[in-house]
Fold each of these.
Amino acid sequence: MASSAPEPAAVEAATTSDDQQSDGSKLRTFLGILKRFIGVSDLASVRFSLPSQLLEPTPNLEYWNYIDAPNAFVVIGTSDEPLGRMLEVVRFWLTKDLKYIKGRPCKPYNSVLGEFFRCNWETEDNAPRIETTGLSEAVSKRSLGSIKAPKSDKSSSSVSLTVPQHGTSTPESKRVRISYLTEQTSHHPPVSAFHVSCPEKGVSARGFDQITAKFTGTSVKVLPGEHNMGIFITLDKRDGEEYQLTHPAAHLGGLLRGSLSVSVSEMAYITCPRTKIKVILHYVEEGWLGRSTNKIDGVVFKYDPENDDKTRVQDVPEADVLARLHGPWKEKVMFTLGPKPFKSVPPEDQHVIIDIGPLNVAPKVLPPDDKQAPNESLHFWSGVTNAIHAKQFSKATNIKLELEEAQREKARQREKDGVPFKPVFFEHVIGNGGKPSLTDKGREVLDRAQRGEWDLEGII
């Protein structure tokens, strides 16, 4: 669970011992704290504090990003076909949660107002191109009997369009740089703005991150907050095509059995008004007899942006269907072209869009310590991080409380002076349809990062 609300000392004193705790005892402590908030409508808006032993030594703004597989991001917009570009967006979407699939859920530090984080990714332009015309022609030929279908099983495919593991280079692959900037823009409600930029490929993304969370007694249900309208991806080399990707519900479970896990339920939507193509992804959390499936059933179809009334897979008329998606999102997801139900399509015409198995979260390129500002995440929380790594939890707790009390004092002073907070790198605190715009300073930070420069002189 990630939250951005600052924390007072109300619950901090629950555990401050420097004794190392097992994962099981940590979860029991965490569960004991959460039980105090059963019935609270939004945990993210409640200022409660966790002992430092329960925190991952990672700033929230560093942790809460979507570029786990950067080579899936830079390839968006490559296809000359609108359907191919939408499938590239879907493929990226299915990589954004690698941190939960490959790692374990964690609670990073809550962000403070005005805190910011920046980084680069250096990645390969090595993801397979999705050209749907060629696939459609192959399917048509097989259906006419002119090509003998190869023997296959349900888990394989004649075409694999998954991204390679980061760091896998080929002679043809080229290194591409992505730059990222995020800033905590609001405290009440806790909201951060972010911008991702890859000028070489003409692809960028932006949005507001905000969550609401509720403890049900057995799990924590997390939903996007009112200012979180999703991820907005823009393709400059495709006449500014814009894709809106909305978040489904997530559940942090395993509290009672002592093993945290993330599952997803309900619906996610991806829309592109310019191409008039929409995707509905139905996350099926449980199957028959309550067994966890973690599967996706999805449909890609033509829609009317002026009359966008299709919210379920079964609502989509067969005549509008362009492709279907199916499979476990933590493992391997397949897609088929055309309106046929997935189970009616032969294995040789089921194509791999993502295989999570070999993938891991790509490392970030971070600014050097001496180039970081006082309110830059890694520098701001460094004292807490160093103490946690040294297992000096009482010290970590004390440093954390001092930092947060200093922030509360700044807030009281702003209120006294009648001076509202204004972000440095983003024009919007909240609003603007969920699409924050960069200030001149924000653009300059990203421009310098693209050149591999981390100096903030003349900016802040």
Note: The CA atoms of residues 323 and 337 lie 4 Å apart.
Amino acid sequence: MTSNWARLAALALSVASVAASDLRVKVLPSECGTQIASVSLRLQLDEFGEVKYLRAGVVLPKITKADNQTRPESFGLWDFGTQEDEIIYNYTAYDKALNDPTYWVVKAEERRGWVTETVLFGSNTRGMDFSEPQVVPFVVVSPAVNYPPAQRESNGWSGFGLDRRLSRTALAYRYHAIVTFSDGRKEELPVGYTNFRPRFMPPPPSPPPFTWDARFEERDRTDDNPPAPHEIKTV
């Protein structure tokens, strides 16, 4: 018996929301289609982190002047007025060393942040034939918590130069379908991934602008107390 495929249609997760999705399961060969005891769906957050730095006493190869100073024709498309006497350098040894484990110490760790799982096909599988695609809807309820947004690929390296300590991280919200056959055998199938859109809370409403009203009147004066030259009459 072989669990052939399981497909997922899922929306991106977002804060304080309900994402409506569905799972489609099909089993081949066809004679095994009625031997499914249950199908569960798991959503998990996988985290990966890596730190990379040069080994003690190791120096990266120097970038040297190329023996052949003739610029390849392919460079013509990218030649925006370069000088004829420009020096062409050879990066081959330097580039190879960037991925050479004899130069670097690499420490990597992968862990599972959290897991939630539910049975989509259970007691209701009696009499169902999974040799034909079976579809079951489900929803994912996200609490009002800004989980970190997921990325399918790594966010790249960060550091202060290729000759120093570098690090990279990756996050992934992954779905897995767990198919249990009537003989107790289980198969786990990766069925997709989703992203998480954080919600940026709007700033609190600003207080109303300060308003005030005043009345200006000219002061009473006498001929014995004339206004100073710099005073301005207000109307």
Note: The radius of gyration is 34 Å.
Amino acid sequence: MRAADASLSPSPRRLWAVVGATGTGKSDLALDLAEALRARGNPAEIVNADAMQLYRGMDIGTAKLPPEDRRGIPHHLLDVRDVEQEAAVAWYQPLARSAVMDIQSRGGDAILVGGSGLYVSSVVYDFSFPPRDPELRERLERDLEEQGVAPLMERIRALDPATAARVDPKNGRRVVRALEVLEQGRATYGAALPEKPLLWQADTRVIGLHVPREELVARLDARVERMWESGLVDEVELLRERGLRRGVTAPRAIGYAQALGELEGRLTRSEAIAETQALTRRYARRQVSWFKRYPELVWHQPPVDVATLIDD
């Protein structure tokens, strides 16, 4: 082989993770990266790690790329759940890892992209989830409905104060899951990034997208307004007919909960938009805090030279 041809040789099969706050351009970067890898002989494919993009029909409010905008790059784990079904990270992890290994077995690089921190972590890092107990879960959900969240939080504090300190008491589903785990005799609540996370695959690159706070806030506020202009309320009305209200996860998504509030007369349109903007800004802060804990992460500010990423 001539020396000039060496740069065209396929590189080792990698797992890439493109992470960061919502609205930073992760989807576009993942596509740019996939195209650049393919140009070098690696048939790269994308695996979704956005919890709400798992749902069929949740498109406008999740900024899901329509098929015609995916540049011919195969995407995995989009539109795989109905809105009345629960999307749990313990369910997602084996599916995402299977998709990654399938891509790699066919000679390609897998690009994991999304801002759902726990979903990304479940693939990138080597940790497992505690088992589920459907009967216990049903009993705890009944307790939550009859007693409210406060008594369940007290039970968690009695069993494990450290778990109680990191479970959001406003999130009844998380409270029930934590108590389900603890009552099975587990010492800690499993759905958290380990103190010293170990990579699932050694050849993993974690790319973080960072946009200055002031610029990101303006982007996010404008994005929410575009969601309403693009027909989010109509989308939610259709999803409500498909069982959105019966869902556990989907109806609580930022934007979707507020559009439901508008449809049901609990919020005016201006109130729904303002509440969605505030929650989106708060969520973006939490995402950045989560990803800062990744020791392998290297932050980049758009625009990103993907050739440099590949050559590093």
Note: The radius of gyration is 21 Å.
Amino acid sequence: MNQSELERLLMLEIHRIIAESSESALLPLGKAVPDDAREGFLTAADIESAKRLDPLDITHPVWQKSMQATIARNAVLSYPPDGAITDTDADALESMKLTAAQELVLKRLIAQACECAFMKFFHLLDNVAAPKDVPPAQWQGVHFKYGRDEGDMLHDQFGQLYFEFRQQRH
């Protein structure tokens, strides 16, 4: 596969991902939020206990409960990575009963937001925009090589860097 074919394939895949994301974003609306997804399912004692556990001991009951909570929360509302689903959040989600027209327009708005994020990312890669913290004259765009020889993968870095992003915003 040459460079042009690869780029075309990736762009088509991004459009598929945007469409799927806008569909799945509405799934929690109007449905009950499970108790294990809500803030408070993991108690303060659970959290303190987890800090002292061996991360490799995934059979420990506190790790099991933590994984259960993470899986349940991610099925409902997973961003930001450290965001809890409060009772207020759960009530709001559960109360949203959409008409077909409302559902369609919300899917379009979500798809538009996703498309905008990708487009701005591509502007950075193509060097037609620069990151906010870098003078435009110093920005040269980016070329990724395919495959990774060392270091974290991009999807790992993306999740981990959320906390740095949040700190910079405040």
Note: The chain is about 60% helix and 0% strand.
